[in-house]
Design goal:
Largest sheet: 5 strands, mixed
Mean pLDDT: 83
Radius of gyration: 20 Å
Number of strands: 17
Distance between the termini: 48 Å
Low-confidence stretches: 234-238
Structural class: mainly beta
């Protein structure tokens, strides 16, 4: 909304937290839904008193709906959730007694659309999700917490919705390098949406289809990889 000269923007409080002492099982985070059209919406993750809420705030209609509400173990993991590129879906880690799963929620229907089976990750590992450029796969990287057992690689899995199935098994498609320098990316997804490019611990640049097939060595002595724009004129593409 454009403001007139001298007009002050209004401030709206969506959620708030209250706690005392050194209580650590509370947290609050928010993000705008990256939709190209429709109402302005904000996703709010709110953990308090042992319960986690995921809420969708419609700023235009001034309404709020609960996407899910369930018990929380209070742990704060540096997980990364992801919106699809059109803002229609949200992929996020949910913790179950036996381990983590990935849930894909339909933000239009305000409901769970589909989920993974139990993920091959321990409860204390970091789970970072992202959608492939065409939104047909969810790509998940598993990392260890910082510390003596951090390691130097990250496992990369893909999930694809299957017709007639609400729970989907994860497929490991790569084991990428995981440098300590966070400015050195070792995973990239070209905009054409067909393949993942990654650098492994041996400094090899490799490409693999999202279904795990066609893992191909591109070149050696590579430290990082970025995706700048979509191209199909690579010799290794064919």
């Amino acid at each position: 909304t454009l403001l007139a000269t001298g007009e002050q923007p209004s401030v709206r409080t969506l959620r708030s937290l209250s706690w005392s002492g050194i209580e650590m099982n509370t947290r609050l985070s928010a993000s705008f839904v990256p939709a190209q059209a429709g109402p302005a919406q904000v996703i709010v993750n709110h953990v308090e008193y042992g319960t986690e809420h995921l809420l969708v705030h419609d700023l235009d209609a001034d309404t709020v709906e609960v996407l899910w509400r369930e018990g929380s173990d209070g742990a704060y993991r540096r997980d990364l959730s992801a919106f699809s590129h059109d803002g229609a879906y949200l992929a996020s880690r949910r913790q179950r007694g036996e381990g983590p799963i990935i849930i894909v929620a339909d933000l239009g229907l305000r409901s769970q659309s589909w989920s993974s089976t139990l993920f091959p990750a321990s409860n204390d590992q970091i789970v970072k999700s992202r959608f492939a450029p065409l939104d047909d796969y969810v790509i998940v990287a598993i990392q260890n917490e910082e510390g003596i057992n951090r390691g130097h690689t990250q496992r990369v899995y893909s999930l694809q919705k299957e017709d007639g199935r609400s729970r989907v098994g994860a497929r490991m498609i790569a084991e990428a390098d995981w440098p300590y320098d966070t400015d050195i990316p070792t995973i990239a997804m070209p905009a054409n949406g067909s393949m993942l490019a990654y650098v492994n611990a041996q400094r090899e640049l490799r490409s693999v289809f999202y279904d795990g097939t066609g893992d191909t060595l591109v070149t050696g002595n590579v430290k990082a990889v970025w995706s700048l724009k979509g191209r199909r004129d690579f010799s290794w593409w064919r």
